[in-house]
Amino acid sequence: MATTAASRRPAVASAGGGDGHGHRHAAVLAIGTANPASWVTQEEYVDWYFRVTNNEHLADLKAKMKRICDKSGIKKRHFHLTEEMLADHPDFADRAQPSLDARLDVAAAAVPELAAAAARKAIVEWGRPAGDITHLVVTTNSGGHVVGADVRLARLLGLRPTVRRTLLYLGGCSAGSGALRLAKDLAENAPGARVLVACAELNLIAFRGPEDGCLDTLILQGIFGDGAGAAVVGADPVVPVERPIFYMASASQTTIPGTEHAITGQLRKGGLDYHIAHEMPSLVGEHIAHCVADALAPLGIGIDVDVDGGGGWNGLFWAVHPGGRAILDSVEARLALAPGKLAASRRVLGEFGNMAGATVFFVLDELRCARGEGERRGCEWGVAVAFGPGVTVETMVLRAVHF
Ligand SMILES: CC(C)(COP(=O)(O)OP(=O)(O)OC[C@H]1O[C@@H](n2cnc3c(N)ncnc32)[C@H](O)[C@@H]1OP(=O)(O)O)[C@@H](O)C(=O)NCCC(=O)NCCSC(=O)CC(=O)O
Asked: Which InterPro entries match (predicted)?
């Protein structure tokens, strides 16, 4: 008989967010997001991109880029990098030029500022003073400094000098989920801890003009956008001030053997040189079921994927990293998810593109606002899944407080 998450509650979970054995689960207590003010519609992007990089003569590549953008499921993307900035830094469009120093100089100020915009919203929602934050976890793919974005962010927010900081660079698109996993561990193991997690991503670190023979440049420039997300994480919420949104029942990481080649990147003189293999959508589709099943099993949630065409997966709500439209399609097809189950991920992809590690905060924010809609209705339990270099799959099992 099929056992679905909808029909069977985990034997080990208690109402207060614990595991029934005195171990308290951390909760996401607040979420904030932010984007740079300037944005380009996906419809206009191809003309914009080939014009500002002085490559309008590359007609074939332009036509291919148009096909990619048309099929991307993206409506607009926000960018810190503007046409004016590119006029001052034409070297950003040519990765043969030594532009890394200039890119890092821009990112040094812009990353903490964008992260602070998201974090301020999270702190306001949290309802307690910034000085009550005990730990700070900051992650970005757009940086390489000491003193880093964590110190600057702590200063911008007025955090205590004793706040315990962790800075994570170059974690790819799974970085935000990895940071949340770390926050969960900190919150559950340090009594009274309140962990601020922040991630800011700027496309300018990897921006480059189109090049013959490097087709993943088009993917990179065609789907990635800028954004920042933040969350406050803590166990044992102080009611009524703190209002949990999602309890974090478990968080796990899997590295898919033999896939190190699939997503690679390196900081080079011309910026972050990032490559994404064509097979990412099928790779994700192939591995998502066992990663999620492995994460659910210890909680006593079983999914029988062989019954009802795999319909058991519909008993969960889903926060899948929208790495690209084809990735969401692949997950939806493999898990036989009902239409609308990935609507939060698709809305975020549509409004902002793939914001790498920051994206998970946007998807969780969408999901908690989507109470009446198909993706959440009736589902107490759900999963957040993100993919990054490794290939890494970060899986977090969540229990929604209001469902
Ligand atoms: C790019 C797409 C929107 C295109 O849509 P479709 O696949 O439906 O359309 P399509 O097959 O006609 O593809 C349009 C054109 O793009 C080309 N194309 C597709 N994927 C490509 C890739 N990865 N590299 C190079 N070219 C690619 C196709 O060959 C085709 O060329 P032609 O038209 O000439 O035949 C989609 O494939 C997509 O969403 N891909 C997922 C992108 C991805 O891997 N994202 C993960 C980012 S990594 C991440 O999130 C984690 C991290 O970075 O850490």
From this structure: Chalcone/stilbene_synt_C, Chalcone/stilbene_synt_N, Polyketide_synthase_type-III, Thiolase-like
Q: Check if 64 has its Cβ closer than 6 Å to any atom of ligand 1.
A: yes
276 lines ligand 1 (CB under 6 A): yes
Which residues form the catalytic set?
Answer: 173
pLDDT per residue, tens digit, the chain (403 aa), is: 333 444 344 333 444 566 555 568 999 999 999 999 999 999 999 999 999 999 999 999 999 999 999 999 999 999 999 999 999 999 999 989 999 999 999 999 999 999 999 999 999 999 999 999 999 999 999 998 899 999 999 999 999 999 999 999 999 999 999 999 999 999 999 999 999 999 999 999 999 999 888 888 999 999 999 999 999 999 999 989 999 999 999 999 999 999 999 999 999 999 999 999 999 999 999 999 999 999 998 888 877 665 545 568 998 999 999 999 999 999 999 999 998 999 999 999 999 999 999 999 999 999 988 755 556 667 889 999 999 999 999 999 999 987 5
Q: Is 210 exposed, middle or buried (0-12, 13-18, 19+ CB in 10 A)?
A: buried
381-388 vs 392-400, strand pairing mode:
antiparallel
Q: State the pTM of this model.
A: 0.94
Mutate to test the pocket of ligand 1, among 68, 266, 352 (most ligand atoms within 8 A of CB): 68
Q: Is the CB of 357 under 6 A from ligand 1?
A: no
Q: Give the Cα separation of 274 and 267 in Å (integer).
A: 9
ipTM for the whole predicted complex goes beyond 0.95: yes
Q: How far does Cα 173 stand from its chain's mean position? A: 6
Structural contact between residues 247 and 29, judged by C-beta atoms closer than 8 angstroms: no
> Which strands sit side by side in the sheet containing 392-400, from one edge to the other?
164-169, 135-140, 194-201, 227-234, 27-34, 246-255, 392-400, 381-388, 317-320
CA separation, residue 102 to residues 37, 50, 228 (Å): 21, 22, 21
State if residue 68 touches ligand 1 by the CB under 6 angstroms criterion: yes
Residue to mutate (ligand 1; options 276, 321, 392, 394; most atoms within 8 A of CB): 276
Structure tokens given for 307: 């019954």
Nearest CA residue ID for atom 10, ligand 1: 68
Please name the residue whose Cα sits nearest to atom 18 of ligand 1: 278
CA of 214 from ligand 1 middle (Å) equals: 13
The domains located in the chain, with CATH, are: 26-235 (3.40.47.10), 246-400 (3.40.47.10)
Distance of CA 162 to the CA centre of its chain: 28
